[in-house]
Amino acid sequence: MDQWTAWVAGGLLASARLLPLFFFVPPFSFPAFPVQVRALFALGLAFFVAAPELPSDTTARLLEGGLAAFVLPFLRELAFGFLLALSLLFLFSLLQTAGNLLDFEMGLAIANVFDPQSGSSVSVLGHAVTLYAAALFFASGAYRTVIR
């Protein structure tokens, strides 16, 4: 088995897990990031994560089985990526809703502002809580766990 073939197969499997994250999770799903940029960034990160020096035994077995043996693990990784993206989307939506409720209880619900990234009006505290959660998500290193 060729080392570069194993790297490409590992990168494709990793991209199946990362692409849904970059298309549906709020820090990257804003219209400010074009779709092509999100896709290329996810593919680049996936091939960076799949180290060419360490082809795994699982990748070797997949490549020996041909394309038919590669399709099922690819679909499994894609389904796991969608599940992971859905759970992170629920988390950020929950925090946005919590900020909207805080905004409503404090009497600031009338002070909605226009968000040019999402193209809609958002509450002040809802947007602040979501940005704080995104900053905490990246500062705590939780993104590494998601990528891993």
What is the N-to-C order of secondary-structure elements (H for helix, E for strand)?
HHHHHEEHH
Our estimate of the beta-strand percent is under 5%
Number of H/I helices:
7
**Structural class of the helix and strand makeup?**
mainly alpha
Shape: elongated
Features:
mainly alpha; 148 residues
Architecture overview:
- The longest helix has 40 residues, at 67-106.
- The chain starts with a helix and ends with a helix.
- It contains seven helices and two strands, in the order αααααββαα.
- A hairpin with a 4-residue loop joins strand 1 (113-115) and strand 2 (120-122).
- By secondary structure, it is mainly alpha-helical.
- A two-stranded antiparallel ribbon has the order 1-2.
- It has helices spanning 3-24, 26-29, 35-49, 57-65, 67-106, 124-139, 142-147, and strands at 113-115, 120-122.
- The mean pLDDT is 78.
- Helix 1 (3-24) crosses helix 3 (35-49) and helix 1 (3-24) packs parallel to helix 5 (67-106).
- The chain is elongated and about 65 Å long.
